[in-house]
Design a protein that fits this description.
Elements: H1 2-20, H2 52-62, H3 71-83, E1 88-91, E2 98-102, E3 107-111, E4 117-122, H4 125-130
Antiparallel strand pairs: 1-2, 2-3, 3-4
């Protein structure tokens, strides 16, 4: 239980930092890719993938679709979704994963019960609801 409370406290703190840095501003209408706030890259990196290899694998698979040029941007963008107060959140009963979905951009993040990011990619609300 302590780990969940710590994650929530960190997420709230990160959300406050991201809001102060301008995160959540409407993305450019000329772009179909999710907005990425490069200034939040360092502050948004408290959640990680279990290993660097897993981060690299997921970045190679989903980095382009999420508009991220580097694995570090990919990690920061996933953290920004988790910390965004507008993100829908639910607990997956099957395995206890935390699921986050930002409807305005279609960004979807899965966080394991141990606090590791499992994946980050684009999908739709229907997919999120079926999980």
């Amino acid at each position: 239980m302590r780990g969940i409370a710590m994650r929530k406290a960190l997420a709230l703190g990160l959300a406050a930092l991201l809001c102060l840095s301008g995160c959540g501003a409407a993305p450019s209408e000329a772009s179909d890719s999710p907005a990425y706030d490069a200034s939040a890259a360092e502050t948004a990196s408290y959640l990680t993938f279990r290993t660097e290899d897993k981060l690299q694998q997921h970045f190679e698979k989903h980095g382009q679709e999420t508009g991220c040029a580097t694995a570090e941007e990919y990690l920061a963008a996933a953290n920004a979704v988790v910390a965004n107060p507008a993100a829908l959140h639910k607990l997956q009963a099957e395995d206890g994963d935390d699921l986050y979905f930002l409807e305005s951009t279609g960004e979807f993040v899965v966080v394991s019960p141990a606090g590791y990011i499992r994946t980050y990619y684009l999908t739709d609300r229907d997919y999120f609801e079926r999980q």
